[in-house]
Amino acid sequence: MEKKQNNIYPEYSANGNGTAIIEILNIGFEPLLTQKEYKIYQEIGSLKETLSVLKHSISFLESKLIYLDDTECYFNWLNRKLQKAKLKKTFYEEKQKYKEDLFKKMLSKNIHKTRKLYDNRAFKKEEQFRNIAIFESELTRCFGCNDMEHCEDIISVVTFYTAIFQSIMHNGFTYKDKHFVFFTAGAGQTRCKKSTFVSEDKLKQNFQRLFCGLTPEEINRQGGMNTNKYLAYTSLCQTNSEIWQDFDIDRAIVVDDIKYKIPNQTVRYIYTESPEDKKKLERLKEKLLSVKARLHTIKIHKKSAPKGCKREKSEITHEKELREEKKQLQDEIALLYAKYHKASIQNMDITIPFTDGFGISLKKLPSSMIRLPFIKGLIAYCPRRAFTGWCREHHIKIHKITDIYGKTYSLSEVDYIFTKSQFKMWRYFKNEFNETAGKSRTGWEIYKENFKKYGCTACKCNVENNVKLNAKTNYQILQTLTTEMTDKDIHDLASYDINTLNGIGRNVQCMLNVLGANEQKNNRMNWLQKSLLLYPEMLKDSYVKTLLKNTKDSMIKKFRSGKFNINGSYVFAIPDPLACLQWWFTDLDKNNLDAFGFVKGDSVSCNLFQDKEEIDCLRSPHLDHAHCIRKNQLKETDKKWLKSNGAYISIKDTMSKILMYDNDGDKLLLHNNKTIIKCAKQFQKKYGMIPNYYDMPKASPEQINCTSLFNGIVNAYHHGNIGTPSNEITKIWTSLNPESTKEEIEKAMEVIALRCADVNFTIDYAKTLYKPEIPEHILKEYKRYSGKKVPYFFLYAKNKSKKQVEKPGKCNIDRISGIVRSSRIVFKDLLGKYSCKILMDNPDVNAKEEKAEKILSLYKELEKANLRRLSHTDFSVLDIDERKRAMFQLELDTRKQRRMFSEIIGEPEEYIADVLVIQLQNDTNKDTLWRLFGEVLYSNIERNLKGTKLCKNCGKRYQAKEKDFSSSYCPECKAGIEKERGKERVRKYRKSKQIFQPPLHKTLPENVQAL
Fold this sequence. Notes:
- The chain is built from 35 helices and 31 strands.
- By secondary structure, it is of the alpha+beta class.
């Protein structure tokens, strides 16, 4: 049994398993305004409201005047009103502009002030001041945060005014007698203009523990670093994680990454502006400006000269030389620009960073992402015994491994092998030699000593668990097949979902599947889904019927946005672990990649699919045609290496360059859908699948201080939006269809490749602080597509209005609307009687007494509050992380509300649940009931149905005999079935006893036959 972590680190909160939910304060900029700033801000708000009313009045008056004769008195009266309203509008607009300028000046003037957080203001928007739920993380554990409690030491800040952000970045702010300072802002936070501020005292107490003794001062002493990378690495401790209980830092090492070149690969090389080009361009532009200035001086001199005055020959020659120099400089600049963003098909050697972010555990461990101070990535298990056995079998000697600091270790001394790409700050932990003591320490030994000295903790997150084949497509996956996908292909792809849709009301299993009550497909069932599996008769409940109708409408909307069920799953991309150990511990020839690993050729290995089965490997975001079709390798001899349900990738595979993934925990979608694979193969046969290849420069190191961090974050604010190029790529794909010509498709593919490069530069901007300059002629190509509205299916995919989208086109996603149609639900009587008493602890509870009425009243208040909050959240447009955060917030609210309910009523949860079940039995909305008391209802169902079964024949529930484990039929149906079986046995017996009678013409003599 594992030891409890809180025995080792008593300062930590009682959790450690990653399940705790902590409440913190989330604020906007309004609470941070000074009293004077806030007064002006309110005045601006009042002016905006007044202007809004005036604009509405002007619009109304103008609409009336159109239909009146200008000679009428009523027209003149209305016109005077209109002119007066317009004058007022002009006055208030000028006043608003004056106040806004004054407000901005005040913000700039107050940059050096230490602000105070005011919590007593009447905030119009909830996001300006509210409590939110966050995940349990190393930060919350260090700060002693407890499950379901409010933490006073962490505040999330969203700031849209850079002057306010600059002020609190440099000076912090005060709240409740505590001084809060800037802590960090990860890439995800930066995209939302969020940052984390923490209590200065708490940070001082825990800084060494969080960052293993490495301070900004030490980083600066060694030359500084990229500021946004520093923020990304310091934000690792905010990741939802659990403590890695049996981790031993003394059994861990850090080794060099595995990198190698694969020669002569076909790539689409995209030339982007290099740092040298940038310097040259700046130099040429400076020269050009200088030449233009001199030519301008000559022009003025010529104009001011007296008429008839001849210029000297040297002046004319000088002007001619300057004009030639100007043309030459312009040509050089044009030539330089012509190189930018130019794609060309080339054969070249490509570098594969095989272990980029990947490490190996030689101790049994589920595949997990790991978090240690400044260490992050993926770790997968590879059995030590299997590797030593392989070496013995092949007569290969195992030598010692050398870490990145030069120290050697034998295989038996190591349990965890981290790579240099995982250890983000390896260069700041340097080897040391103490001349006085005559002892040396490697950088890793210093890290380990600090790790133990400051009580640091290793953590795991995204632990692989119960991987299910229950994936869905999206429009990005399907849009890249638009030129090959016929209407029949769309119908084949949608057939499972169409059958499920048609099964609502007609088939019990279909209805359970639609509601997510399926253990094989859903490993995160809620209490309602679990209860439906126990008591399917609940499908007759009015609330569940309403859910089915709403789910059906939601399903149709999802289908029309390209979301179909496929037999696939999102799994970790895992480099072949045998190849890694062979590379590090043996002397195999590194030029002969065929000798490494167990995954061979164009194969991947995944436990979820059959041997030799064809599978498609995809990654999100899926923008260009990147369908990597591979054969699954699942031999009996491979199973000793396949200790995970991830996708094991061959050392010779260039998939990482096609799908553009890292091995630090990126997940691939693996599926075996025959329709998608067929269309992808057809496309690749015609146009190939060529990976994009380009150079991405790195940002220069800077000194870590408030100013450099602020500048890095603000730059990322302005350049980190990938939505625009991503949507433009979708517009390009939707311009294609099966009737498109080869030339149209090839041209579109080239533009898509360039836009994909733009997306990747945008994604990495926070880390690189670099985006290439796009020449005018390329921007013109982009505008051919960007000028259009978003495609028609964005009605369903992004909740756009009809005014915002194009008319239905011929692309495959638009064609889905004509293939997947809605049908009316008819509920057939498929199951036995439903009784709400099965959901109750005490079926005889009095639901009409005064206390019961109080329960219902409080429930209705909570329901209204929850509906009000949920109405502001559109889950369909949230990404995975945002949806997860929203669900965590709901979970926090649920626990708090349930506890509050019991405290106010003064009765146990079981009694409250019973009263609500009776009072809401005919209600069509019981979301709040199941969220608050679902666990209680499930326990009641489990207890009340103990020893009962559903008859497979008639669908009615019956009491099974105590030791009858095999029967699936009620006594009546069983008797009828046995009777039929008895009759069948008699028929078979009689048939077998019949005497064989040969044909008459073969038994009689010939002379008799003749008669």
